[in-house]
Amino acid sequence: MTDLRRALRSLIFLIVCPLLSACGGSSELNVPPAAPTATPPPSAHAQFVTDDQGRALILHGINVTGSAKDDPQRLPWVTRGDAERVQRDFGFNVVRFLIFWDAIEPSPGQYNETYLDQVAERIDWFAGVGVYVILDMHQDVYGHFDQNGKPLGFDGAPSWAARTDGLAHRIADPWSLTYIQPGVKRAFDNFWNADGPNADVQQHYVAAWAHVAARFKNHPWVLGYNLMNEPFAGSEFAGDFAGIFVGDVQRSKTFEQTLFHQFYERAVAAIRAIDADGWIFYEPLAFPSNNGGASYLGKLDDPRHGENRLVYFPHFYAILPELTLHYDPAKTLELDAWVEARTAEVAEIRTPVMIGEFGLPWTAGGSPLGYLRKILDTADQMTSGWAYWTYDPGNWAPIMGNDLHETPNADVLVRAYPQRVAGTPIRYAYDVDARTLDLTFVERDGVSGPTQLYIPARRFYAGGWHLEVDDTAGSWSSQWDGEREVLSVTTPHTGRLHRLRVVPAS
Ligand code: 9MR
Predict the structure, then answer these.
(1) What is the pLDDT of residues 380-417, one digit of tens each?
(2) pLDDT single digits (tens) 129-161
(3) 311-343 burial, b for 16+ CB within 10 Å, e for fewer?
(4) The domain boundary residue, chosen from 373, 399, 415
(5) Which of 231, 449, 464, 504 has the greatest CB tally within 10 Å of its CB?
(6) What is the CATH number of the domain that holds 437?
(7) Do 308 and 436 reside in the same domain of the chain?
(8) Residue 229 alpha carbon, nearest atom of ligand 1
(9) What domain range includes position 318?
(10) Candidate from 154, 184, 229 with most ligand 1 atoms within 8 A of CB, to mutate
(11) Ligand 1 centroid to 66 CA: how many Å?
């Protein structure tokens, strides 16, 4: 861009909020005409979760919590204070809340309402501070115990549903290698084979989901349901010890397109029979997609009237950094492979996408913070929301120690971002070094309410910030909520592109 063009461009940026202190009230502003914008049309593939006013929801948040797996009550350790902190200190607007089949249905057809009451109580803590909840039916290596009460995996299914047919299994190290134990594979096979002698297992799982949906369908802050954490193909997974994370993609392809796809169809139908509007999140097979391999699951149909409310919910773990606890920023092949695979899938299925898990300890070698930044920048480029793994005090988390002080990860996970967009986002990007946030969106029929930007003012903008807008006509107004650090911007109805930019004041 030439200096002249740059100068012209900055002229048509209107400074709505010159100083942080001036942002307390709403302001009506006239915007001078601008030259027709050269911004490209909306991405052909970008789809968005929307709120009840039709605004695109961009979700940044965290998993609550990994350690709930081992809690006797299957509950996260968090308090109401943590729910407040998640919003106040980190600016998150969503949590992926782990729930467990063995807690929901400890014996066949018997639901534990006390557990669901306790889950509901915690959901309300998050709801109270305006944080959405995605219920994640978590499993790792099928379940804690097999049907004989022998240790099997880490969490998930009740023992009565863990049918290993007497095949051997033992806990392996690292934990994920336990997936390839014969008994574990058989438990999954018996789950997936919905027409076999163990057909009741999957039927119970699906019915348990319907029960959960009935319980939470009217909760305004329960955004939706994640059908299964990190699904595993059982004996159709062809990896061995060396190849577990890569596997034989072709071999599991048929499985993905048949038994696995049919399972999702059944689960979606069961939830839709109860809840027409909740968003249904679903993951590809974790191995190999977590690590960058392709998924052949294909498009799922949503039987609801109106637009689909399905969300593709993959995880993002580059295998070398995860196993070696070292990230070399010069070696991004694995990360690039993940982006390429997910981008192709999203183009095919035309479904909103959100990263359900990713993470690395800040103590990892090389550039662990660079790794997290790269994933977060990528998520913005893909217009994908995300949920960090996990809100358990420690090196992975943004908090640690008895006093729950922040780790260096906190400053990386906290970013300015558009939380609600009054139209269809075309592009948004947060520049960590310059501390600028750019958003371009187009208006969409039927959308009401302002665009809302989270701006971590207390953390990153001690000298204040400006909002710059670039538009052709009409009146703008903005309102700053200093407590939540959310700027609400009402844009004029011009039918054209709107551009907003937050920049540091000094
Ligand atoms: O980080 C978790 C690790 O401490 C546990 O030993 C393991 C088994 O319970 O699970 C890990 O969490 C995983 C999550 O449940 C699923 N996605 C990958 C996570 C990190 O490995």
Answers:
(1) 999 999 999 999 999 999 999 999 999 999 999 999 99
(2) 999 999 999 999 999 999 999 999 999 999 999
(3) bbbbbbbbbbbbeeebbeeeebebbebbbebbe
(4) 415
(5) 231
(6) 2.60.40.1180
(7) no
(8) 16
(9) 65-137+200-415
(10) 154
(11) 7
